[in-house]
Amino acid sequence: MARKTKWVIFDADNTLWDVESLYNSARNSFCKYALEAINSAGENKAGHVTLELLEKAQHQRDIQLYKTYGYSSARFARSFEDTLLFFMPYAAQDAIIHVRYLAQNTFDQRPHLADNLETILSQLAEAYSLAIITAGEKWVQEKRIAEFHLRDKFKEILVVERKTAQVFRNFCVEHGIPAECCWVVGDSVRSDIRPAIDAGLKAIHIQATNWAVEHEPLPLGVESVTVLNEIVELLLD
Ligand SMILES: [Mg+2]
């Protein structure tokens, strides 16, 4: 079989699989638990603390912590703990342990795969070599990949600390392929699309719900699709 010289490099989180709903569900559980704890301790007599306020506070704390913790599982647990302590400075030890557990439990769960993923990958594999480049805490990414039953469809899977233009340039050099023969598919303009375009690769943006730190305007001329399925038509025209 002839070696395929065109590549599609996928992002993983919120592209091949949906992790956002795991984080959202943990956040909902945290807010409910925290509100109940604050109410039962009699610390919300004026009723100022609501689920919405707790959610907003957790989001804000998580973004602050990102500056020091980056994409780490420790950051998410810390954001729950700090949010609880902000509203309830003398929270019992058990409550702190429980909210940390709610966050950590997210990383034990398997994310849902994108709809129709197996067919999408099989169709693309007819014309392209497939790869994954994913950024994030190493053990979390490796665990998600180890549990991913379609991982053998990819010729290369890389876990990196951060996706930069240099990461994509190195990938092309190592595989002896011109940058313009590579497509990058991902949900984050900041981590997938921008560095890919800067390195001379082509990119398709997936409009998945993702974290606010990933948000920035889409570069001109980049296609943006609502579901992964739509990339097949774009790449196999
Ligand atoms: Mg992503």
What features would you describe in this structure?
The chain is α/β, with parallel strands linked by helices and 237 residues long. It is 47% helix and 14% strand. It is built from 9 helices and 8 strands. The chain has a 6-stranded parallel sheet with strand order 5-4-1-6-7-8, with helices on both faces. Strands 2-3 form a two-stranded antiparallel ribbon. Helix 1 packs across helix 2, helix 1 (20-40) packs antiparallel against helix 4 and helix 3 runs antiparallel to helix 4. It is elongated and about 65 Å long. The two termini are 22 Å apart. The chain binds magnesium ion. The site of magnesium ion (MG) has 7 residues, from loops. Residues 11, 13-15, 186-188 line the site of magnesium ion.
Describe the SSE topology.
Blueprint: E1 7-10, E2 17-18, H1 20-40, H2 51-69, H3 73-87, H4 93-104, E3 112-113, H5 117-125, E4 129-135, H6 138-146, E5 156-160, H7 165-174, E6 182-186, H8 189-198, E7 202-206, E8 223-225, H9 230-235
Parallel strand pairs: 1-4, 1-6, 4-5, 6-7, 7-8
Antiparallel strand pairs: 2-3
Helix pairs in contact: 1-2, 1-4, 2-3, 3-4, 7-8
* CA gyration radius, whole angstroms: 20 Å
Helix percentage range: 40-55%
Please state the structural category: alpha/beta
The dominant shape is: elongated
The small molecules bound here are: magnesium ion
Uncertain parts: none
What sequence of helices (H) and strands (E) makes up the elements?
EEHHHHEHEHEHEHEEH
The average pLDDT is 94
Oligomerization state: single chain
**Alpha-carbon distance between the termini?**
22 Å
Q: Could you describe the largest sheet, including whether it forms a barrel?
A: 6 strands, parallel
How many DSSP helices?
9
Strand segment count: 8
Task: Quote the beta fraction.
Answer: 5-15%
Question: Order of strands in the sheet with the most strands?
Answer: 5-4-1-6-7-8
